[in-house]
Amino acid sequence: MDYKAIAQETAQEILRYNQDTSGWKVVKTSKKITVSSKASKKFHGNLYRVEGIIPESTSKLSEFLYKPENRVTWDKSLKVYNMVHRIDSDTFICHTITQSFAMGSISPRDFIDLVHLKHCEGNMDVISSNSVDFPAYPPSSKYIRGYNHACGYVCSPLQDGPLKDIYRMRGTIWKGWEKSEISHCPQEPSTFETSDVYPDRNERKTVPISN
């Protein structure tokens, strides 16, 4: 499997989402962030985009978001986030295990994701990830293996100062049903609700997502 090619393709997909201005509907606003959604063309569910301003340089912000040792300090939906294979200085494969949700009715899942940091013109950084097959970490009987569609962050400077925009798009399949999940900026205390879509049953239920 050509992991470098997949990483580059995923980063480009996140950039296309970032540049796409049509069809997004604002579903949540606060003093710090705006959340928008639109139907995905790749899976049965929605994409979510979170936009906010963080008073930090692009390099420091992207480093904070990208480095594996930082992830569990701000993403409380995860209980394990380990780098299992380094491809190059900007690309690695990680194994993650989620917390349980909805008072334990949704058990923890595990994921194998390819994570990549791309530096672009205009002092813009893209941190992207996408689930991949990795023979060294096959699915186990202990956890149900999930799948993440292309997701990530775009950190770019504002024209009138050093503050940054940050975007997060995510679509997750959790073995038998699809989950359109809102993940939000580091240190953002807000809680959102999103629908879990069950393709085989005409049923939805709402689960709070918070950090």
From TrEMBL:
This is StAR related lipid transfer domain containing 6. The lineage of its organism: Eukaryota, Metazoa, Chordata, Craniata, Vertebrata. Residues 198-211 have a biased composition (Basic and acidic residues). May be involved in the intracellular transport of sterols or other lipids. May bind cholesterol or other sterols. It comes from Suricata suricatta (Meerkat). Keywords: Lipid transport, Lipid-binding, Transport. Transmembrane segments: none annotated. Residues 20-211 form the START domain. One of its GO terms (biological process) is lipid transport. InterPro entries: StARD5/6, START-like_dom_sf, START_lipid-bd_dom. Residues 185-211 are annotated as: Disordered. PANTHER family: PROTEIN CBG07384, STAR-RELATED LIPID TRANSFER PROTEIN 6. GO terms for molecular function: lipid binding. It comes from the Eukaryota.
